[in-house]
Amino acid sequence: MSQEFSDPPHDKPAPGTDPSVHQSPSVPQEEPPTEELDRVEVPQGESPEGAPHGPLDQTSLSFGAEETKTEEVPPVGVRLEVDAENIGWIVFDDPNDKVNRLGTSVMERLRALIDEALRRNVQGLVFVSDKENMFIAGADIEEIAHVETPQEGTEKAAWGQAVFEAISRFPRPTVAVLNGPCVGGGYELVLACRTILAENNPKTRIGLPEVKLGILPGFGGTQRLPKRVGIRTALDLILSGKTLPVKPALKRGMIDAVVPEGRGREIAKEVITKRRRIKKRPLSRIDKTLATVGPLRNFVLGKARDALAKKADRSHYPSPYMALEAIAASYSLPETEAYSKEARLLGEAIVTPTSKSLTWLFRVSSESKKPVGLGLDLARPVHRMAVVGAGIMGGGVAWLAGEKGFPIRIKDIRLEALEGALATAGKLWAGAVKRRRLTPAERDRRLEKLSYTLDYRGFRHIDFVEEAVIEDLDIKHQVISEIEREVPPETVIASNTSSLKIEDIAAGARRPERITGLHFFNPVDRMPLVEVIAGPQSSESAVATTYKLALKLGKTPILVGDCPGFLVNRLLAFYLGESLHLHEEGVPISRIDKLFKQFG
């Protein structure tokens, strides 16, 4: 199992090593050779040692091809730079977006740049991003949404496989340096590299979340990831679509080393020039056995299929089942056929109603970051938060604030309630430590963001207060009045109400323009949606502040009107009402549950 390590504190580091670089203890860095990097020529049908390759005949490689003139092309988000040491740097930087995506134009340009790097005979390639806290956010969601036929989807997947195969078979060292999110097609790209470094950036997430869009990794991800991490880990990652921070990703073998933030390019250059050795994490004995013994591997695949069946029916959610087929093919079929099957399965998945619905949902969720008719530039900065009411919801909000780095003051009239809020937050972070999502030190830093009080001491420094007391209008009036006496005039006060109108809650407030609604759903740690409610007297600045804070807390906010039930509970009322209507007509409750579960 991979783990972080450093040199003993009193020992001098060996040449070519760095105690700040975390790798597997079973593969320590070696003393680098002093000779220059030999130029490697790759005969047709072979690949350089260590290359995570796929089928050669899927690509249109131009190794050894005659030189052609390089035409000037407009910037499309990726470029090649060659430094004084003849190292090629493939730099992703979309000039028109905050994130990097692998659209068709970027992929075509990337393919041309790989050929150009070959012609210029660089001694290695390093894949980096010029955007702060961002590597590659995957494929272009708009292109995914507009695929209309399985054949079109299959062709796009095969083209992506060919581009990444050119990286895999590049006859010089290839290194990827992750400095932010690297998901979907972005991670499939780096899987084709021989060495994957990740800077120790807390914003980085790594993985293959395609099933959450109703598709599957189609650029070689279902083929390369099992070979890198083993079939058990690959099944867990791909079928769930989970993404991991850098240290859990290192432990699972998804990357080769975690390096200090800001030093990724420097260390990559040392790898290219052989001044530093970073070896691969070896597969466990069990994973090696599963890769070679068909009956045992089929047993593992069967267990994964059974687990999927308990969570979702294939007719409603086919992509994980398709991903399972593609992973199985990576072991049972010749490489060319396995890659072709992955492409075909992607083509089939991308046009299913499930994929179209999930893609639409993703696009709508992304658009929520730019609400129509609300100027987020009017939002006031929020540095410190408070929550009044330390019940289940208050405790969840306290955890969320600490998780996102906001100091938060939790106030209640009962000590037992405060203890309960601390227990709620502590339990969630303890679970994260147990699952190795957090270290104990990271958990403690989050806990330090939380402070507790039975009165309003400290509220004069608060920028945003979430009121989370019981759904009683008189009590809410009393609490709002108390809060207003303690906080600065510009502090925004939001109610977590699920049923009372903001207009009524703000009635009698000294400054009703700063009263808004921010309705979280239970459990706070699992429900991404929040309702932002603008009362008739709420100022645009207060609403914008509430909305922008919801985004910073990692939630998906929707701006709703000040009406009974707002949006979600109004829909829920019809949903439950129809259930009761069916039951009154004699439909068994078990049948109703099954019908509504199938509906989604």
UniProtKB/TrEMBL annotation:
What InterPro entries does its record include? Answer: 3-OHacyl-CoA_DH_NAD-bd, 6-PGluconate_DH-like_C_sf, 6PGD_dom2, ClpP/crotonase-like_dom_sf, Enoyl-CoA_hydra/iso, FA_oxidation_alpha_subunit, NAD(P)-bd_dom_sf
User: Short name of one Pfam family for this protein?
Assistant: ECH_1
Q: Tell me a GO biological process for this protein.
A: fatty acid beta-oxidation
Query: What's a Gene Ontology MF term here?
Result: enoyl-CoA hydratase activity
Catalytic activity line of the entry: a (3S)-3-hydroxyacyl-CoA + NAD(+) = a 3-oxoacyl-CoA + NADH + H(+)
Write out the entry's keywords from A to Z: Oxidoreductase
Q: Which CDD domains match?
A: crotonase-like
List, for all copies, the residue spans of the domain called 3-hydroxyacyl-CoA dehydrogenase NAD binding. 385-563
Annotated region (Disordered), positions in chain = 1-60
Q: Would the keyword Oxidoreductase turn up in this protein's UniProt record?
A: yes
- Protein name, UniProt field: 3-hydroxyacyl-CoA dehydrogenase NAD binding domain-containing protein
